[in-house]
Amino acid sequence: MKQYIHQARLGLMLIAALCANANSRAQLDPSVYQKDTAKVDQVETYPNEMIAGELTPGKGFGIVKTKVASLNIGLYSIVRYLNQLPGEHDQVWQDHLGRDRDLTGRNDFYWHRVMIWFTGFVMTPKLTYTATVWTIMTTQQTLVYGNLQYRFNKYFIFGAGIMPNISIRSMQGPFPFYLSTDRTMGEESLRAGFTNGFFVKGEVLPRLNYVLMLGDNLSILGIAAAKLTRTMSKGVGLLWLPTTGEYGPRGGLVDFEHHDKVATRFGVNYTHCRDNRFNNTGQPSPDNTQVRMTDGVLFFETGALADGVTVNEANYDMIATDLGIKYKGFNAQVELYYRSLTKFDADGPLPVSSLRDKGYSLQLSQMVIPKKLCIYGIHSYFFDAFKRHPWEAGGGVNFYPMKSRSWRLNAQAHYVYKSSAGGTFGLYAGGQTGTTITIGTDILL
């Protein structure tokens, strides 16, 4: 009996030694790890410039990679302080119909957003997956979503799952490399959201990329399948990188990589959808919270366009054009917007039959200390259907303590006039006129 026990111990020790040896080789083998997209090599290109439904993490942690599958885990997280001034409890603003609305500006600290990415390939490197755990504490929402992609070649990549509607530049991959810790008012006001669907993307000509998508609606967040209609969202986007063929990791808005040659990008995106409020017109608050008018009011809210009248469906058409340049730590981007809301289906008479809004956003940044300190400015303005002309202007600073994009400290102050963006997801409250201060820190692994 003792002999059998001794032999069993020897066998277990041998197995443990082999496993430890294999594990050490896996940890030392560079092929186990995916490319670190938070680092930059001037000779590299960045194929996620025209992204559709994917948020490529940084290096993350290479858990396993075999001939048949791989698994990588990445993480993004942010904590921030937000103060929307003047902030009085009795602050009143008027919507486009002159009706008084109350606003209490936020003054709070939040562990705001966490994203955990599980990425890799299955059976063949051509078939990749992304599964994301996403939580927003300010809205008390937690989801698990993702997509599958199959790369036939560089000209044709097919994907299905959760994806962004191709409406503006910030929906195509730069997250979290914004100047601030969230989008500007110009970006946030008119954009579409994320939905379920499929897309095709690729390189149609050298340095010219395309993406086509078909989705369920403008934003699937909070919308159950039973509430969806039979109409779908459609989108198309083109991206041209004429000079260097890249624009840094994810096309981020800071020239952290310090381009020695001028990098340029030009993009145009279009999205169409016959969108719905997704709940009974007898309920004043719609389930569709994606579409806002430029006075900050939800478009499908009862009384949005006329007292007691509810719009149930409408056409949403959005086109945006962006132009950007990077050179020796400087980055400039301007984006032009045009959105139309037409063909209203309402339960009563309305004073207008369409809303057409135009606007722009401008973002400038300069790395004053390479890989360490960035200063930036932002500005947005709208020529809107209500002639309210909401705008914002401000700026901030980004500090990278470890000379890496993996850890950032951000502080920003901006003044907003009759904010057209709203909600607790971002930095804006609908209708606000005043200064907003935000201080935050985020990490990307």
UniProtKB/TrEMBL annotation:
InterPro entries in the cross-refs: Porin_dom_sf
Signal peptide: 1-22
Keywords, ordered alphabetically: Signal
Gene3D superfamilies named in the record: Porin (2.40.160.10)
Keyword Signal: yes
Superkingdom to which the source organism belongs: Bacteria
Name under which the protein is recorded: Porin
Species whose genome carries this gene: Niastella koreensis
